[in-house]
Amino acid sequence: MKFNKSIGAFIMLVLFLVPGSSCAAPDSIAAIVNKDIITLKELNDYAAFTGMQEQGARVKSRQELLAKLIEDRLILQEARRSGLKADEARVKARVEDIKSKYPSEAVFQQTLLEQGLVQSDLEEKISEQMLMYEVINKQVKSRVTVDPQEITSYFEEDKKLFELPEQRSVEYIVTREEDKAAKLYAALKDAKGFGEAAAAAGVTPGTLQLFKNGQFKKNIEDVVFSLKTGEFSYPLKAENEFYVFRVTGVVEPRRQKLDEVREEIRDILFTRKFQEGLASWLDKLKAKAYIKINVVE
Questions:
Q1: Is residue 45 scored above 80 in pLDDT?
Q2: Does the pLDDT value for residue 112 go beyond 80?
Q3: Which are the contacts of 239, defined by CB distance < 8 A and separation ≥ 6?
Q4: CA distance to 70, 279, 288, per residue, from 291 (Å)
Q5: What single-letter DSSP state applies at residue 34?
């Protein structure tokens, strides 16, 4: 059943990104958003799903989750007010994509039933999700622009952000057997090529790009970055494994030029502006909406 659970979680993702309008008894209402309601069941299911997906992260409070559901409902309402329609062909293609993750049609339908759904429910939720994305693109994303001067200013403000650390291209082997590492090292001292020496020692060589940025253990980094092109290390022990490195290339630290990072900076600024624009747009939707929130424990 592990496979079914993972696919079930995928379906829940589609469902809870955009909760659908549902009717329930008054005592099960968590919030009213204009003429729509959000039930306690929707909130409870969304809380369970979020907790499952965010293991190790800060667990959001139920108030935070309800606030997210309210925002999603406002976005969906705005999409419908704007007269947007989901592309049926895209909806059906998305359903088929989900189906392809199942071993069979029967398993797909059974998993839907376990979630209390039929295929038309899933199609409706996907349609709603697409409407949300479309209205956000139309009302927010399409209006975001990044001026070339903004990119230049961002680059000039802190050029240290675009400094590349020293780099080494290396051939290496890793083995748990110290005698194999020693045999390789001896072969390298006899001026054999790295591949030939590795074959003689019975180990498989690999290649790697190492940056001097603290990502590797200090004893490895210190040794590798003391080597020049063509030089090799003695067997280095890290935990229960032994490494031997041979440097094949050296790139000195340098500061990137604006043309190298222009698109990266544009993406940073675009994302920042989009997030700010989305927050402002949502605030406006909330300001003109009728929202009643019941006490959520």
A1: no
A2: yes
A3: none
A4: 8, 17, 9
A5: T
* Mean pLDDT score, 74-78: 95
Contacts 24+ apart (CB under 8 A), 225-232: 225/166, 225/168, 227/168, 232/185, 232/188, 232/194
Residue ranges of domains in the chain, CATH in brackets: 2-144+273-293 (1.10.4030.10), 166-252 (3.10.50.40)
Residue 187, both tokens: 């072969």
d(CA 41, CA 59): 19
Residue 157 pLDDT exceeds 70? yes
User: How far is Cα 11 from Cα 115, in angstroms, rounded to an integer?
Assistant: 9
Instruction: Label residue 230 left, alpha or beta by phi (over 0 means left) and psi (-120 to 50 means alpha).
Output: left
Cβ-based neighbour number of residue 225 at 10 Å: 17
- Give me the pLDDT at residue 274, please: 97
Beta strands in the chain (DSSP E): 29-33, 36-39, 163-164, 167-175, 206-211, 236-238, 241-251, 254-255, 291-293
Reading the block at residue 92, the tokens are 């059906």
Q: With bands split at pLDDT 50, 70 and 90, how would you rate the model's confidence at 22?
A: very low
CB-CB contact of 111 with 14 (8 Å)? no
Distance CA 93, CA 113 (A): 21
Q: Are 134 and 80 in contact (CB under 8 A)?
A: no
238 φ, ψ (degrees, to nearest 5): -135, 110
Joined together, the tokens standing for residue 154 give 């961002």
Residue 98 corresponds to which tokens in the numbers above?
């989900």
Whether 269 has a pLDDT exceeding 70, the answer reads: yes
Q: What is the mean pLDDT of residues 208-219?
A: 87
pLDDT digits (tens, 9 = 90+) for 48-68: 656 544 544 565 788 888 999
